[in-house]
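Human: Note token order:
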Amino acid sequence: MKIKFLALAAFIFSITAYAQNLNVSGTVTEASSGQPLPGVNVILKNTSKGASTDFDGNFTLNDVPLNSVLVVSYLGFVTQEIKIVDSQPLSISLVEDSESLKEVVVIGYGTQTKKEITGAVAVVSSETVETLKPTRIEQALQGQVAGVNIVSNSGSPGSASTISIRGVSTNGDSRPLILVDGTVVEDLSVINPNDIETINILKDATAGIYGVRAANGVILITTKSGRKNMPLTIEYNGYGGFQETTRKLPMLNATEYGLLLNESFAANGDPLDFPDVSGLGQGTDWQDQVFENRAPIYSNAITLKGGGEKSTYAVSNSFLSQNGIVGGNKSKFTRLTQRGSYSVDLIKDLKLSAGLTWTHTVRRTLPETGIGSVLFNALNMAPTIAPNGSAENLGFEVVNPVKQIENTYNIGLVDRINGNINLSYKFLEHFTAQASYQFNYAKVTSNSFSPFVDYGIIGTNDKVFDLRRNEDSDNNTVYEGRSFFRDYTFDAFVKYENSFNDRHNLNVLLGTSVFKTSGDFISFTGFGIRDNYIGNANLEDATRFQNNNPNGNDLSFDQRLLSYFARVQYDYKGKYLLSAVIRRDGSTNFGPNNKFGFFPSGSIGWIASDEDFLEDSKFLDFLKLRVSYGILGNDRIGPFGYVSVLDGEATYVFDNTLVFGAAAGRISNPEIQWEQQETFNIGLDMRFWDNKVDVTMDYFNKRTNDLLVQPDASGLIGVGAPSSSPPIINAGVVDNKGFEFSLGYSEQLSDNFKFNLKYNVTALDNNVVSVSQEGGFVPGGAFGIGQEAPSRMEAGQPIGYFRGFKTNGIFQNQAQIDNSPILNNNTQPGDLIFVDINEDGVIDDLDKTYIGDPIADITMGLNLSFDFYNFDFGAYAFASIGNDIVRNYERNLPLTNRSIQYLNRWTGEGTSNTFPRVTTGATNNTLFSDFYVEDGSYLRLQNVQLGYSVSPDASEKWGFNKLRFYVSVTNLFTLTEYTGYDPTTSVGFNSDTGSSNAIGSGIDYGFYPNPRTYLVGMNLKF
């Protein structure tokens, strides 16, 4: 009986136990889109039992105990734990883990988690790019990363910006190396910002793995791609809006202008130009004539991406159109971009990936910066002249800017193809071999037509304004140019990765790299276009034409690099980190004795928060100390500088006949060698209070030795001959020291309110240590007409500092002049007082001194964003403090217009101590002095955006996974004391290298301002 009772109890228990086990099924989707997620791991917690979702996101797990917990995980998404309380099908939505995605950082020939990185590496996410809506990628970097400064070369559509990382270390080509999916890209205008997934910036010795091209830092851009087992996803991003200038300079109206001219003529004893000013009124506002109030801009981009069990793909197409705020469609940029990428597992352990991008850009331009530019003319044109009038007696450089716009026909077309193909093979368990080939091809077409136009300039036959002076200056001209650029990079390396005893982790990389870039240039000028009509503006309709290349030969260049590199990365217990790199680079830019250079670099790290004494800290979540040091080489100069090349022009006499032939071009220097950059960095990364607060601090010291510069040289050695120039020399040492601080704070205040704040600041000290050049300095830049260069590179000063006279107010009377040192007898009461710096009782060139520099002492960025229910808001600001700008857009001729600041001019003793008198006579007031140097510091609210996302339920009804609308304003306001158009002026821009020359930057010749842009857009995903 007892046995029967026990058997019955066991039977009942088994039934009860079985009844507590369930078959569980469900579907896993992506929260933002509602799309099913295949390949998601669904594991019974604390067991090995589990399943994966199929292509439709479905899963089934049998015999699951009641009240047990399922762990649902997928790479890039927040892991969820779900308690099983019944057998109802589960509907699980995974939220993308943006922080997790940011943990993987591209560092060069591989990736590392952010925790493992021992160098100064910064990351900009796609969310930031999408919020800013930049037309060019550079605009998304300003203010986002400490130590990275972006300076505009122009605000015109399609214009480039100068990127500098941790200061200016050279006067030559200072651009960082830019790689898009491993492909070298020199011009970022060809990249659609919508395609970007992440941007990683290598700022210290970490860049050494890329060798010679990485001396100025590296920017690594990764584009969006699909995922394996991902269904087709379509994304559309579009916006439209208009642009306007942020500022018009206050100039004299016609009446004020007439009174000022009368005063200036009277001061020199000349007859009054306007005996009766009563009828002049306001006159013509020339800035109103050239600025567009509603310059349109719009963009459309569509992306398709997805993947199968063994492959991924992504295809995108975008179109951007942007009119200029000066001249409308005469200053216009359009860009069409098509991109595709594909990866596939060919066989086990063998992976193929490839990408191809085609870009077609069209850019129409006006004369933008300098004497003769549209804005220069608008500022100097007399307001008494009607919009269709002529600029009589204003000086050859000044013409009617309205006519100038009407008769300017400049267009540039660029067709560019870049691509890459990569093969990766894993073998012997711990080894990976990889080979990649990247290429770029570009065809650049330039066309312009200068018609025969009467600009009313007395003294130039009253006929033609043509900056290209030639023997046919009384005729119309057409210009056609073609340039072809090609480059390729082949990289091959073997990687070994292994872990020993669960403590030692080792990664060894051995590789080689080959780079070649070449180009060809040809251009022709035609004269005498029939009917002076743009429709006939081609070489075929020209009366005659000439080959612009020396000797009629095509110009070309060919540069090559051969490199070998090795890297060792090691960590012990994941908290003691080491990375060491050695790279040997060979460049054809140097002679046989200096062709190769060795460049070592290394870094160490200590994750202190993993130590026992910090492991249980209640407020500190992460603490890492980093130190790096390295030497990087730079060869960014023109090819064959070490030999004489017959690419110059010369005229010879044979049998009493002039014969045009070849001669040596740029003067050679067989001793030129590598520019070397020594860089040291010590940094600290910290996170506090459940990772809500993120702090990064870095101190850096970069010393650039053997600076590659092109100095002034005596004409006796032939540098003034056609197509000749001074030699490239190694001439100096420059230091850049600084401190970077970044602070991030994020808080989930409630289920419906999320807040983020990011702030960064960089303090920089730039100093030229030595200049091994005759005279002890290298000059640069330009001011006025016929004056010496205002900028210098000189020991003891920042690179490109401004040198001129210091002033100390205005001479009020003759007695003050008689008791003061003066420059010459032109000095009269009302003139600027030049300071006798050396106190020798004479004002001369020895009294010129430091009066400012273009390099900011401090830059700061502030980013604020929050999400509230379905609304999102973001604002980005940037500040530059301590940089100076030279005001050089005033022509200072008797009849040109002036700023209203001259209403505060000196008119008699005690009337003014800031602005000098006006006169048509000789004066020293136009000499370069601190009167023309202004504080260029500014604070700019770069972007403000407000968005609204339609609820998932409503989107699903309409057949969309995501639908968001937004409005944004770019360049909303700028706080500055600078009186010019835009304090972000760079100038010093070298069109040959696409970078800014440090010696000559910060001079405003009439800078085309960056526009304020109003946009309305939408993001759609289905």
Observations:
- Confidence is low (pLDDT under 50) at residues 1-6, 8-19, 459-473, 989-995.
- The first strand starts at residue 21 and ends at 30.
